[in-house]
């Protein structure tokens, strides 16, 4: 029955609890630009069920000190994101 | 769950008394150390407490979808605070009177790192007994803050007559019949009623609301924001219920501020418990039904312009 919880989690855009995959893409993002060390990165796989949303995307938020947060989107599941995808998204 | 830092979100319209409550939390001898995230450095001159200024940056993770908005500043600050883990026991996020609590709550569900490190404990809304009724007429934010609340501190009761107080409480109950409400002067509420409520923990929904499955007796009505509760006397079929709740929250998500429910499935000794914000739901089986307890099912939605008839018919049609 616990699969029902998983069903809801998976169906509503909740991030999967996969720290390793997040850490991997975060490291790629940090390496893709010359960011100050205090820069915070947030990496999430969004699978929003809203019809106006584009389906599964990996969203990278880059939060440099004193700069407005920027979002970079890669139209792929988190596990499929490559170094080239991150570099292309961040324009580096 | 236990090693996650609890986060209390403190909302309330301008001048309601948020800072008074915050100062009490920070100065009473409870032995806990708080990190406080405030929108601006106000008059919180507390020694050795960590007070962090934030800019309430609401950020869209996706295409303008209300359900995908998070508080970017929270992610950034929590990222920094977690590096100092062990220096404080809990976090309080104070929002401005104009802030929508939804992006704050959604940050805890949408962002992987935030969800790993911290847990949303409760949304506490401070309301001004004298002016709330006026604010509910002219400020949608005030209505959101009442609708979203797990705990409502109805403050400044010394400034109104008993009749006025009953009237303002009725206005609150028309929007949110389920929040724990405390009438206060100078926000004098026991802090145990405000902190560590675990209002978003699935296994506490039953504990916090032992009467959840009882039929309520709320006959107030708000023209725009309302609560809809529907009860099935007995079990529901998961094959019908899951698609129904998924579709309802997808379609009505922007209008649904909060929802929760306790549901009995056939041949399942545990309750299925869920709660959600907009279209983000969290649900699982929790806590066995007690021997002899009536296995009823109930869902509650608080939101704007909800189609009560469709929700009622939809849930009743899920009966096993």
UniProtKB/TrEMBL annotation, chain B:
Domain CobW C-terminal residue range list: 225-319
Keyword Hydrolase: yes
Pfam family, one: CobW_C
Keyword Nucleotide-binding tagged: yes
Annotated InterPro entries: CobW-likC_sf, CobW-like_C, CobW/HypB/UreG_nucleotide-bd, P-loop_NTPase, Zinc-reg_GTPase_activator
Stored PANTHER family: COBW C-TERMINAL DOMAIN-CONTAINING PROTEIN, COBW-RELATED
Functional summary from the UniProt entry: Zinc chaperone that directly transfers zinc cofactor to target proteins, thereby activating them. Zinc is transferred from the CXCC motif in the GTPase domain to the zinc binding site in target proteins in a process requiring GTP hydrolysis.
Protein name: GTP-binding protein
């Amino acid at each position: 029955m616990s699969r029902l919880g998983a069903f809801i989690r998976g169906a509503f855009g909740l991030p999967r609890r996969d720290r390793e995959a997040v850490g991997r893409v975060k490291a790629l993002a940090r390496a893709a630009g010359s960011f100050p060390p205090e820069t915070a990165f947030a990496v999430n796989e969004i699978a929003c069920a809203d019809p106006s949303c584009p389906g599964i995307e990996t969203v990278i938020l880059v939060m440099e000190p004193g700069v407005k947060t920027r979002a970079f989107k890669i139209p792929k599941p988190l596990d499929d994101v490559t170094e080239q995808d991150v570099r292309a998204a961040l324009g580096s | 769950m236990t090693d996650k830092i609890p986060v209390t979100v403190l909302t309330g319209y301008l001048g309601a008394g948020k800072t008074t409550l915050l100062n009490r939390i920070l100065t009473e001898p409870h032995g806990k150390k708080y990190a406080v995230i405030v929108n601006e450095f106000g008059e919180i001159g507390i020694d050795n407490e960590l007070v962090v200024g934030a800019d309430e940056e609401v950020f869209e993770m996706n295409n303008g979808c209300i359900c995908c908005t998070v508080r970017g500043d929270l992610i950034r600050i929590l990222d920094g605070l977690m590096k100092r883990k062990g220096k404080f026991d809990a976090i309080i996020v104070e929002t401005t009177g104009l802030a929508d609590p939804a992006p704050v709550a959604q940050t805890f569900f949408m962002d992987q790192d935030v969800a790993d490190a911290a847990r949303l404990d409760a949304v506490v809304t401070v309301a001004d007994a004298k002016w709330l009724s006026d604010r509910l007429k002219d400020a949608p934010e005030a209505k959101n803050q009442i609708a979203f609340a797990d705990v409502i501190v109805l403050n400044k009761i010394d400034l109104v007559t008993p009749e006025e107080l009953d009237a303002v409480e009725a206005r609150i109950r028309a929007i949110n019949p389920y929040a724990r409400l405390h009438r206060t002067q100078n926000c004098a509420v026991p802090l145990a009623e405000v902190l560590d409520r675990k209002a978003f923990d699935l296994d506490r929904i039953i504990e916090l609301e032992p009467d959840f499955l009882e039929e309520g007796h709320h006959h107030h009505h708000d023209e725009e924001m309302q609560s809809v509760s529907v009860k099935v006397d007995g079990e529901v079929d998961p094959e019908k219920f899951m698609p129904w709740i998924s579709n309802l929250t997808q379609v009505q998500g922007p209008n649904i501020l909060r929802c929760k429910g306790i549901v009995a499935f056939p041949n399942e000794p545990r309750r299925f418990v869920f709660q959600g914000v907009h279209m983000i739901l969290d649900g699982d089986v929790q806590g066995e039904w007690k021997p002899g307890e009536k296995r009823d099912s109930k869902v509650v939605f608080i939101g704007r312009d909800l189609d009560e008839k469709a929700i009622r018919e939809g849930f009743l049609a899920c009966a096993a």
